[in-house]
Amino acid sequence: MSVITYSAYAQKLQEMGISRSVAENTDLLKAVEEIRELKQQKRAVILSHYYMSAELQVTHANGGVADFVGDSLGLSVAATKVEADAVVFCGVKFMAETAKVLNPSRKVLLPSSLAGCSLAESITAEDVRFLKKKHPGIPVVAYINTYAETKAEADICCTSRNALAIAKALPGDKLIFVPDQFMGKNLQQRVKAETGKEMILWEGSCEVHEQFSPNQILGLQMMYPEAELLVHWEVPDDTVARTLSRSGGILGSTTDIINYVAESKAEQFILGSECDLGATLRGMYPHKEFIVPCIRCPHMKQIDIYRTRDALRALGTEREDLFRIDLNETVIQGAYLPIKRMLEFA
């Protein structure tokens, strides 16, 4: 790795709160350099979620490997604009599946087959068919955190960034929202107040966000009385109700949180979301302080620099099928329309 590239990469990691010893790790730097070369050789791009470890969030322009870093909606939009032959998705399986639905002719690789999602696994296509039979004629909104075969049974998908707009725009006085019960309850308060609509919910949850308890956040608010609170839609509704009004802040998507910090005059923030979003925020706003209860998504953390390198090495070889996302044509066609409708709200 050139001195200039290394310097930019190391500096960005340090801004994100990563220690100098990690930034100067020889094996890490060699892997980053190889990934940058392999991307060019194999005409591949890397999409990296905000919940990835900091080493995967540094962009190519800053000496890193990511061609685009974003939330679920941002990555979905980026997937529609890919011009490379292959996409390496540093996220979890449902995200890579979405990229495949939007790019059926391109290869999509997921660096670890273990990168699943507790929320996506909480509901199946059969479950959605059951709900539609039980509530005929009521539109089904499937959160992006679902697998492609589940999406294929929905009328429209949504992300945490556009869920409220979609819920408000749908016709009728009821809608089915799956699978996150806590996000659904948080949304329901706004939707009910603004439209009077009733939301029929499923009992799924995210194993990361459900851990943010009222007592945990209240304790941090006592320790940092000047801090504003940043909480994701997936955090339990009782936690949101008991804590957000105490300090001010925002309930919203990952990008909503990022944008809120940019506009806020506060200097301290308590983060109620995945731990490595804290690294993202520190890198973007180095002069502000972020208090982060470090709850990590075990599925996201299955993906690292080295597994990403391995996926790129395998591209075009007999080992490619260890990483490649394959969906049958029926699922791709079924999931495409709900995803396309979602992107109209991007």
Topology:
Blueprint lengths: L2 H13 L4 H4 L2 H16 L2 E6 L4 H4 L10 E3 L1 H8 L6 E5 L2 H10 L4 E3 L15 H10 L5 E4 L4 H4 L4 E3 L4 H7 L4 E5 L2 H15 L2 E4 L12 H10 L4 E5 L4 H11 L1 E4 L1 H10 L4 E5 L2 H10 L4 E3 L13 H10 L14 H15 L3
Parallel strand pairs: 1-2, 1-3, 3-4, 5-6, 5-7, 7-8, 9-10, 9-11, 11-12
Strand arrangement, largest sheet? 2-1-3-4
- Would you state the CATH class of the largest domain? Alpha Beta
Largest sheet: 4 strands, parallel
Note the beta-strand portion.
Answer: 5-15%
**H and E order:** HHHEHEHEHEHEHEHEHEHEHEHEHEHH
CATH architecture of the largest domain: 3-Layer(aba) Sandwich
* Tally of helical runs: 16
Distance between the termini: 37 Å
Q: Could you name the CATH homologous superfamily of the largest domain?
A: NadA-like
Uncertain stretches: none
Secondary structural class? alpha/beta
Question: Can you tell me the overall shape?
Answer: globular
| Mean model confidence by pLDDT | 93
* CATH T-level fold name of the largest domain: Rossmann fold
Number of domains: 3
Extended strand count: 12
Characterise this structure:
This protein is an alpha/beta fold. The protein folds into three domains: 3-115 and 300-326, 3-Layer(aba) Sandwich (Rossmann fold); 120-201, NadA-like (Rossmann fold, 3-Layer(aba) Sandwich), CATH 3.40.50.10800; 209-291, 3-Layer(aba) Sandwich (Rossmann fold). The chain is built from 16 helices and twelve strands. The protein has helices at 3-15, 20-23, 26-41, 54-57, 72-79, 93-102, 125-134, 148-151, 163-169, 181-195, 214-223, 237-247, 254-263, 275-284, 305-314, 329-343, and strands at residues 44-49, 68-70, 86-90, 107-109, 140-143, 156-158, 174-178, 198-201, 228-232, 249-252, 268-272, 289-291. The chain has a four-stranded parallel beta sheet, sandwiched between helices. Strands 6-5-7-8 form a four-stranded parallel beta sheet, sandwiched between helices. It has a four-stranded parallel beta sheet with strand order 10-9-11-12, with helices on both faces. α6 (93-102) crosses α16 and α9 crosses α10.
